[in-house]
Amino acid sequence: NNPDANHILGCIRMSEGKYDESISYINNSLSVNPDDVGTLISLGCALSSKKDYEQSIIIFKKIISLKNDISQVHFYLGESFRQVQKFDSALASFKKCLSITPDHIGCQLMIGIIYEELKKFDQAISFYKSCIETYPDYIEPHINLGMCLLLTGNYAEGWAEYEWRLKLPAKVYEMKFNKPKWTGQDLSGKKLLIITEQSIGDTFQYIRFAKQLAMEGAKIIVMSQPEITHILKQQNWINDVIDYEENTEYDYYTYLISIANILEWSPDMDTQKFPYLKIDNNITNTMTKTNKNIGVMTHADKSLSNYKQISININEINPVFEKSTHNFIDLSEFDEFDKLAEVIKDLDLVISIESDIAHLAGSLNIPVWLMLSAVPRHTWDLSYKNTSPWYPSLRLFRQESHDDWTEVIKKIEENLTSV
């Protein structure tokens, strides 16, 4: 029954990711000392780690009622509010944190992120730049600034700031190379090693630039995610596809997304031909000849940080599909990209949330209705309301307000009647 021992055990279990045990031990401690601020902070953190944000909000508010001058508690409360998309409350908490600790760099960054969620992009950019002025080598505000600039159509500055992602402590960015980095040198007859990075969707999106370089005389070698190696090997303009542990001969190297920065790409200069990927294999057993074949993706991987923002409740949208006579195919049932690509290339339409599938379909020039959250990823330039400069086959259905898909679903239903 020793409160200190229980608190310590709770913290140990929290560090091990055993959140239920952690909460149990911490509550044992609080049964003896219910208003101990340090123990309450641990409980709030354990609840947040368990993603029980509503309960963590209750605990952090209790702590503030007992002691109002701990800046980090206001920070924790702000983050819990952000996770449940109560952005105005989050902003107030982060600002309180900053009033107590003006040089709290993480709080400055989070205020910028919240301003983005509130669609106050000028204020977001201002806070990101303030972070950078205070700590010029702090990686995250540079990356967030880059993404915000790209989202609002400022490509020249956006690409440059987004290059800071290469400084992240990720295995893919810590690789060692024995040849020069490509920064725009003549590639005629040269072997260029391109390292894919981040998501598979990003690979499908940016691989267009590798094709452009191939058409100009470069010999392209792609270091790729294993899930899509077979798809990339089908592209006759790619000389070789290797995995991340494999060695090869090359003249220059570059990370895939960096090519956009080197080429200074912006929507008004794109000369890309569509489709820029091809799929050779054929499977048609899921298709019908009497109705339109429509692929559907409505939910995301729960491990994604933006899972809640981009996923749609199937009980809200499934009735729309059930009313229609078209042949709907659940694309989430395909666990291999090879099979998925073979299906998508024969579809009449894809209806999808933000996903790798949308990029794959766009690269194949398949019509896509893309359902976007109120503040989507930086790819989906807000300067374009219903279209995308990345894919001419995409039609965008943008959410008007956070966590409300009503109008998006209504528009999907209305447009399905004319397919």
Please characterize this protein's 3D structure:
This protein is α/β, with parallel strands linked by helices and about 425 residues long. Helices cover about 45% and strands about 10% of the residues. It has a five-stranded parallel β-sheet, with helices on both faces. Strands 3-2-1-4 form a four-stranded parallel β-sheet. The mean pLDDT is about 95.
Question: How is this structure best summarized?
Answer:
Helices cover about 45% and strands about 10% of the residues. With about 425 residues, it is of the alpha/beta class.
- Mean pLDDT, rounded to whole units? 95
- How many DSSP H or I helices? 18
- Major sheet summary line: 5 strands, parallel
Into which percent range does the helicity of residues fall? 40-55%
Beta strands, count: 9
Radius of gyration: 24 Å
Distance between the termini: 67 Å
Strand pairing plus helix content: what structural class?
Answer: alpha/beta
Please name the defining characteristics of this protein.
10% strand; 419 residues; alpha/beta; five-stranded parallel β-sheet; 18 helices
Any chance you could write out the topology, listing elements then pairs?
Blueprint: H1 3-15, H2 19-32, H3 37-49, H4 53-66, H5 71-83, H6 87-100, H7 105-117, H8 121-134, H9 139-151, H10 155-162, E1 191-195, H11 200-215, E2 219-223, H12 229-233, E3 238-242, E4 252-255, H13 258-262, E5 293-297, H14 307-310, H15 314-323, E6 327-330, H16 337-344, E7 349-353, H17 356-363, E8 368-372, E9 394-398, H18 406-416
Parallel strand pairs: 1-2, 1-4, 2-3, 5-6, 5-7, 7-8, 8-9
